[in-house]
Write a structure and sequence with these properties.
The chain is an alpha+beta fold and about 270 residues long. Helices cover about 25% and strands about 30% of the residues.
């Protein structure tokens, strides 16, 4: 058997999350079932990110073991013939047997998109969230600067997170403006439960003058969820990329200086 890694794009608004569930549609179940329809083989996907209900992905990475005889360069095309239109396999490659996209991932990039103004978006309703009125972009950028770096992000985590490690590093948090559409792009080494959506809500509050940019540091230090902004709806959230120590699908090598890379070199040299 060989282990394969796949990059997938999907519309999460029609699913109850990536992970397989008993009584609700999931991306994982749809992909595993479609592979069985194609090959008659039962597989179990290991996902690099368990996106929540309603959250979409442009570059989700997962892996699985298979005995398939389908050539790796034809696998995406074959698999897509049995997948629903809301999911597409973009690339497939053979990886080491112990590859795990969840534990081998070094970071992720997300994008959250809002549309301002008095008219709610129609064509973008599955990709963006409507925020009526205007937002102070300068204030939002100033608030974003305060979040970059290594912090305890407990104040930006909703209840229900299984992790006990609340310290994370945000390497980039930028705003892109195009007419009445604002996209927040965030790159970090890891994210807490709903963390990106809470950060987006906090930036929206800053843009609405409900939170002062200078108060972000105190909110982080307080570790109190009630002081941060609201958890924004899932439809505006997009998982753009999963990063690894070395390039996997191209353009996904972790670009930042990282102590884990030094440890990796030390482990290799000691063998």
């Amino acid at each position: 058997m060989r282990r394969y890694a796949i990059m997938t794009e999907y519309d999460g608004t029609v699913f109850s999350g990536w992970q397989r569930q008993q009584n609700a549609p999931s991306v994982q179940a749809a992909m595993e079932n479609s592979w069985f329809d194609l090959t008659g083989e039962t597989i179990r996907l290991t996902g690099g990110s368990r996106t929540d209900a309603g959250v979409s992905a442009l570059g989700h990475v997962s892996s699985f073991l298979s005995q398939t005889s389908i050539p790796v360069d034809r696998m995406a095309l074959a698999w897509n013939t049995t997948l629903p239109e809301s999911i597409a396999v973009k690339e497939v490659m053979i990886v080491e047997a112990d590859f795990n996209p969840r534990y081998d991932g070094w970071g992720k990039s997300y994008r959250y998109t809002v549309v301002t103004g008095s008219i709610r978006p129609v064509l973008l309703r599955r990709q963006a969230v409507h925020v009526p009125g205007e937002l102070d972009v300068f204030a939002m950028r100033e608030a974003a600067k305060e979040m970059v770096g290594t912090h305890d992000f407990t104040a930006f985590m909703d209840q229900g997170s299984p992790t006990k490690r609340s310290v994370r590093t945000i390497h980039e948090l930028s705003l892109e403006i195009k007419e009445n559409t604002i996209s927040f792009r965030i790159i970090g080494d890891g994210f807490l439960y709903h963390m990106v959506r809470v950060i987006a809500g906090t930036l929206v509050y800053a843009g609405q003058k409900k939170i002062e940019p200078g108060a972000i540091g105190a909110i982080i230090a307080s570790k109190k969820r009630v002081l941060a902004g609201p958890t924004m709806p899932p439809e505006g959230l997009l998982l753009e990329r999963v990063y690894f120590e070395q390039t996997l699908f191209g353009g996904d090598q972790w670009p930042y200086e990282d102590g884990r890379r030094e440890l990796s070199i030390m482990d290799t040299s000691s063998q």
